[in-house]
C-alpha cells in the first residue's frame, strides 16, 4: 500500500527532532456547497533539526515513531522559486 504524502507549513519546531506541520485542505460544504478550509496538525520526525518554522514541507506517513509521531519530513518545498526569465526580441 502506498504511503500518504501531504504538504503543509511548519508551525512549531521547538521540540527536539520533531516539527508540527499544519496541513490545510479545501472541502465543499455538504449542504451549502461553499468551499471551506479545514486544517489539521501533524507531528513529524525531523532527524537533524534542519527544518524551521514557516517553511513549507512535504511529509510522509511512516510506522509509529512515538505516541504522536507517525509522519516524517521528506523535503522542503521551494515556494519562493521564481520562473526563469524569457527575453522576447521584438
TrEMBL record:
SUPFAM superfamilies according to UniProt: Nucleic acid-binding proteins (SSF50249)
Keywords: Ribonucleoprotein, Ribosomal protein, RNA-binding, rRNA-binding
Ribosomal protein recorded as keyword: yes
Gene Ontology terms, MF aspect: rRNA binding; structural constituent of ribosome
Pfam families according to UniProt: Ribosomal_S17
GO cellular component, one term: cytosolic small ribosomal subunit
HAMAP family cross-referenced by the UniProt entry: Ribosomal_uS17_B (MF_01345_B)
Protein name: Small ribosomal subunit protein uS17
Gene name for this UniProt entry: rpsQ
Amino acid at each position: 500500500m502506498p504511503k500518504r504524502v501531504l504538504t503543509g507549513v511548519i508551525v512549531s519546531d521547538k521540540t527536539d527532532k520533531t516539527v508540527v506541520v499544519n496541513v490545510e485542505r479545501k472541502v465543499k460544504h455538504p449542504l451549502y456547497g461553499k468551499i471551506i478550509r479545514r486544517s489539521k496538525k501533524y507531528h513529524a520526525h525531523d532527524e537533524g533539526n534542519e527544518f524551521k518554522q514557516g517553511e513549507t514541507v512535504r511529509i510522509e506517513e511512516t510506522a509509529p515513531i512515538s505516541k504522536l509521531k507517525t509522519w516524517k519530513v521528506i523535503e522542503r518545498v521551494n515556494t519562493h522559486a521564481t520562473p526563469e526569465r524569457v527575453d522576447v526580441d521584438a
